[in-house]
Amino acid sequence: MGTVSNPVKSPSGIMTETVPDLYTGEPPIQSAHNTWKAVDEDLARALGRNVHRAWTGQLFIQTADAHTVTLSAPSSFVASKINSHYIDTIRRLWEKHDRVDPPRNVRVVSGPSKASRRSAAADSTRPSLVGVPGSRSSSSPRPSLQTPVSELARKRFTLENFVIGASNELAVAVARQIIGNRVPQYNPIVLHGANGIGKTHILHAIEAEITERDADRRVKFVSAEDFVAQFVASVRGSGRDGMSAFKAGLRDVDLLIIDDVHFIADKSASQEELLHTIISLVGAGRQILIASDRHPDTIEKASDRLKSYMSSGLVCKIGAADYELRLRILDRLITRRREQGHAGLAIPQPARDHLAARMNVTPRDLEGAFNQIVAQSEFLGTPITLETVQETLSDSRYMTGQRLTVDRIQRSVCEAFSISLTDMSSKRRARAVARPRQVAMYLSKKLTKRSLPDIGRRFGGRDHTTVMHAVKRITQLRGDDATFDAQIRAVEDGLKS
Ligand SMILES: Nc1ncnc2c1ncn2[C@@H]1O[C@H](COP(=O)(O)OP(=O)(O)OP(=O)(O)O)[C@@H](O)[C@H]1O
């Protein structure tokens, strides 16, 4: 374990460390920079230059102490993409390169861009992560509360690029009304639908369109995860000023967009703050747009008041994409890839039909399968045919119409080990319960695309390090104990069949 660090705030608000690390002799922030350099190079190799440039290459170190390193992304969109797709790879590489023992935890948050951070060093009056309170004078330009959206995201996540079908046409119509500022009577507006169905895409399209059309309309985009992190930081850290900056950053806007609100469900203080934010914005006639993976009424652990406020405006569902919509999304993906320099990309119609015909596949899954198929053909120099598509889709996660979910895995494990479903989320540590729980975490990591923090949340709000530990432990036990290994394989086979 490293030394207890002694964080101080620089004028720019970036935390620095004064006490050298016990093991490396370097200040934590310095050793974090050195580790990050190596991780960054590996990431570019592992993900490919283009992906790296678009996502992980935009990260920089915001804070570091002996236990945690915080990487900052230029927008909450980039942060949430990295947290859902690349965080496990980053953590694995960090573990490999970090010279601090045990390796520090890595988290990614949205924050100021590299450029704005540099200018912050020269200008200690820059707005904080959550915006600035206070007045505007005619001589000083109003600070922009519009979140910086990466150029790539701005181009890609537009309404023009969003394929419309029966399941999402209402959501798109609502989005257009919000862009035109024509729906103040519906407030808040909640978009809900399954993961990967296009909610974040629509939210970013709204943000980008408004930013483009009307620089004076103040839009703030925040993921619920950032909301909680910033709220907790302002409660813990910076006294009254921090709290009022936090509140002002969210309230001094014309449109507040909150993504993934379900994340807030089991955090009572953050919930309360969200409720007050909604009440205050609605009262002031400012629009709020919220996305959730379920109807507000069914967010477990959300207070009745929060549920009722969230449902009091307009609740709009994005349904599952039907076959026709999936086929059109696929055509759009092919066109886009051709425009990006793969002019010769050809996917025969039977192969497209097969790809789109998968039951219960969300646009995100479709995109994942498409990328897989195209990459395989590109790297191996082989054409894409119905057979190659079938072959790829026979892989675990695309295999059946029924997608594997953490819930389904938990149920199967409960059955196999004769424990109850509530034990999966309980605090009980008896081995008879803890081991099956670890098995379910391990299988969730192996068989779904969920990130470690996401899996942890589905097991009674546990931390991602608990899931990481479970994965390590079960992998080790499978290697050491053939009977245990056979038992896990049986559960896994049952889930895949
Ligand atoms: N109708 C659509 N047309 C084009 N692309 C789509 C459509 N729906 C979703 N996508 C694409 O699918 C991917 C996943 O969408 P998105 O991230 O918006 O899902 P989400 O509902 O916000 O998921 P989560 O709840 O996990 O955050 C994105 O790349 C998005 O561009």
TrEMBL record:
Chain sites annotated for binding ATP: 196, 198-200
Subunit structure: Oligomerizes as a right-handed, spiral filament on DNA at oriC.
Major localisation: cytoplasm
Cited function: Plays an essential role in the initiation and regulation of chromosomal replication. ATP-DnaA binds to the origin of replication (oriC) to initiate formation of the DNA replication initiation complex once per cell cycle. Binds the DnaA box (a 9 base pair repeat at the origin) and separates the double-stranded (ds)DNA. Forms a right-handed helical filament on oriC DNA; dsDNA binds to the exterior of the filament while single-stranded (ss)DNA is stabiized in the filament's interior.
Residues covered by region (Domain IV, binds dsDNA): 378-497
Domain AAA+ ATPase positions: 185-314
Coiled coil stretches, renumbered: none
SUPFAM superfamilies registered for this protein in UniProt: P-loop containing nucleoside triphosphate hydrolases, TrpR-like
Domain statement: Domain I is involved in oligomerization and binding regulators, domain II is flexibile and of varying length in different bacteria, domain III forms the AAA+ region, while domain IV binds dsDNA.
Stated name of the protein: Chromosomal replication initiator protein DnaA
NCBIfam families reported in the protein's UniProt record: DnaA (TIGR00362)
Annotated GO MF terms: ATP binding; DNA replication origin binding; lipid binding
Top-level taxon: Bacteria
Family per record: Belongs to the DnaA family.
Biased segments, Low complexity type: 105-145
Keywords annotated in UniProt: ATP-binding, Cytoplasm, DNA replication, DNA-binding, Lipid-binding, Nucleotide-binding
